[in-house]
Amino acid sequence: MATAIDTRSASHFDVLIVGAGLSGIGAAVHLQKDCPGRSYAILEGREAIGGTWDLFRYPGVRSDSDMYTLGYKFKPWKEAKAIADGPHIRAYIRETAHEHDVERHIRFGHSVKAAAWSSVDARWTVSTQTAAGPVEYTCNFLYMCSGYYSYAEGYTPDFAGLTDFAGTVVHPQFWPADLDYAGKQVVVIGSGATAVTLVPEMAKVAAHVTMLQRSPTYVVSRPAKDAIADWLRNTLPPKLAYSLVRLKNVSLGMFFYRMTRKQPEKVKANLLGRVRAELGPDYDIATHFTPTYNPWDQRLCLVPDADLFASIKAGSSSVVTDRIEKFTAHGIRLESGRELPADVVVTATGLKLVALGGMTVSVDGTPIKPADCLAYKGMMFSGIPNLAVSFGYINASWTLRSDLIAYYVGRILNHMTATGTVVATPVPGPDVVPERLAMDLSSGYVQRGADALPRSGNRAPWKVTANYALDTMELRFGKVDDGELRFTKAAVVMPEAVLEPLAA
Questions:
Q1: What is the 3-state secondary structure (H, E, C) of 7-34?
Q2: 156, 365, 386, 456: least surrounded by Cβ within 10 Å?
């Protein structure tokens, strides 16, 4: 176990973890196991464990990844459903924290605002805001597990006439617990994962739910339960069964993603054929379910047990593909001239991306923007010492990669202990140039938040991959002291060239 810490008084730690969600709790468990001599604390801005899965409380909230891969490698998922809802995922995270005695390391209500690195002291000064006022901490290594979007605000377009609307408007990120939509006309604006989750769930009690989208998204159905996983769990020891199911699901996911890159038209035809089989030959698939981009240029939407299609066939929900002209007193007028009646409008219009939990970062007094940095192995930033970011997969289960990153952070810390070094700074070679965003999707929320994202380089270890097998080889077995993660025994001020903004 990690060094015991009096959480009532300590202000300096070997490692500070920011965020007590899925990534942060997993990071703490890995740190305790791999670096038992390191002291640590978790700074959590809210008052609860769970992160995303505690924040989002809209009807039907669930994962769009299977829990055998979204769950931790070290803790088998034991529930019946492979596609789990928010409350079950939240309980899983909290159970993990309790089982590994992580809770006593968490400082709730500490919102991180700034982090300043001092090369002279070889440490970070982290500024937080609490209900009692500002509080500062110091640490040798800063580990950001705060995700990539703002908890304080979601994204809502500037809709014309919104103030004229006499009904209720809600954003899924801030769902009112007392919202009554039973027997009412509901319009859900959006076509992403949140929208396809909300529509069939709200349609159970609403008079009717309309999913209003500007353009379609790829939607794929799969069973909420994994029959093969259930058979393996009933046949083999739990850990062995869990490992085999993870291997199966990871392999299938990697194969499918490769196919979308190599044969996008074939994959597209297959996905649309499945939707047509669900909705029948007379449904207008071309208008409502055929995107203009290739599969995995944006994230696919998962529909467990075909619930969205079932609600459409039952007539309790429908899809409208059009653009909004303006809100009216009683609904939404579309550019086609049609008006959708609405008592409740849900703006499932996306997230607002932020870098490093929204905190400002400086190195020896120089402000650093993540967008001016290259991503080192998808987990560190060029020119920023002793800072790692837990950033999972976008094209697969988030935790697959966050687990690998947590393991690699342990390798870095143990290497510094073994070599007597105190600073690890990613420094790209002169031949490394930025090629694209580290999050390689064409989704609106990614493009809107491009300034919050580092860049992926033209070669390893600066090229962010979306390949679990390659990342496993690199992060679990690759060389830590690779010449581009520079370890130093004495604190040094980094050359100005390292801190200069990247060329566009």
A1: CCCCCEEEEEEECCCHHHHHHHHHHHHH
A2: 365
